[in-house]
Amino acid sequence: MAILKYYGAIAEATNCFEEQISVTNLNVADCVALLNKKYNLNQIQVHVALNKNLVEIDSAIKLKDSDEIALLPPFAGG
Amino acid sequence: MKNVFIKGPITPEFISNSIAKHQTKKEIGAHNIFLGQVRADVIKNKKVAAINFTAYEDMANEVLENIREKAFKTFNLTCMHVYHSLGEIKTGEICFFLFVSAKHSKEVYAATEYLVNIVKKKVPLFGKEIFEDQTHQWKVNN
Predict the structure, then answer these.
(1) What is the pLDDT of residues A19-50, one digit of tens each?
(2) CA B85, CA B52: separation in Å to the nearest integer?
(3) Tally of domains in chain B
(4) Which residue in chain B has the smallest CA separation from A72?
(5) Residue B98 predicted with pLDDT over 80
(6) Cys bridge to A23: A2, A76, B84, B104, which one at CB 3.0-4.6 A?
(7) What ipTM is given for this predicted complex?
(8) Distances (CA, A) of A40 to A37, A44, A69, B108
(9) How many Å apart are CA B85 and CA B6, to the nearest integer?
(10) How far apart are CA B98 and CA B140, in angstroms?
(11) How far apart are CA B81 and CA B6, in angstroms?
């Protein structure tokens, strides 16, 4: 299992901050597509961080157990 | 890694204490400070009353550490401090405090502009703009 983390507008859409996901044969793009469908995130501009590094949302990087995948809405600091 | 995040607003006392702490560092000839304040924007006739900030703190700390290393090398800084609020910050209160110090003014001016822009762009911070009627929208940096 890998950990999914949600922030800001995305956490509002998923109604939780964190959950686990089975990542057998799943890459980043698959995972994002799955979550888009489950939570209807299409209206939010999503960035993805894999183990705290930003990756492309259509990345083919394979996910593995203990990965931390964070879905991040637009940044708003400063 | 120092703690960047402060729960609640950054107070004028905190800022003045930071200045005072640097008076022993006598190789410094120039300080520059940038303060971000929560603005009462009016959007579709509704006025912003506060912003509730959250962060992906583990990632934000790593990103800021990289920014810090690069800034020290690029601008010949003596000191650099960045603080950002988390939680609900009312309009008129300070949510972002950047404090850079060097031998000369030229370096701190350039560093300030670079750092303000990169923090806004690269650090995973999120802001919920709360209107006076308690509805909200999510802030997006331009």
Answers:
(1) 999 999 999 999 999 999 999 998 899 999 99
(2) 9
(3) 1
(4) B124
(5) yes
(6) A2
(7) 0.94
(8) 5, 9, 18, 45
(9) 5
(10) 20
(11) 13
Structure tokens at A38: 């489950």
Q: How many CB atoms lie within 10 A of CB B87?
A: 15
- Taking residue B103's Cβ as centre, other Cβ atoms within 10 Å add up to 14
Residues of A engaging B, defined by a Cβ cutoff of 8 Å: 5, 7-9, 12, 45, 49, 52, 70, 72-78
Report in angstroms the alpha-carbon separations of A48 from A51, A55, B13, B28, B41. 10, 6, 38, 40, 29
Q: Residue A43, SS3?
A: coil
Structural contact between residues B30 and B102, judged by C-beta atoms closer than 8 angstroms: yes
CATH number where B113 lies: 3.90.1170.40
Could you tell me the two tokens for B132?
């006076």
* Domain range for B22: 5-138
Residues of chain B with C-beta less than 8 angstroms from the C-beta of A52: 56, 58-59, 62
Q: Name every chain B residue with its beta carbon within 8 A of the beta carbon of A70.
A: 56, 59, 124
Which amino acid belongs to residue B60? Answer: A
Q: What is the amino acid identity at position B44?
A: K
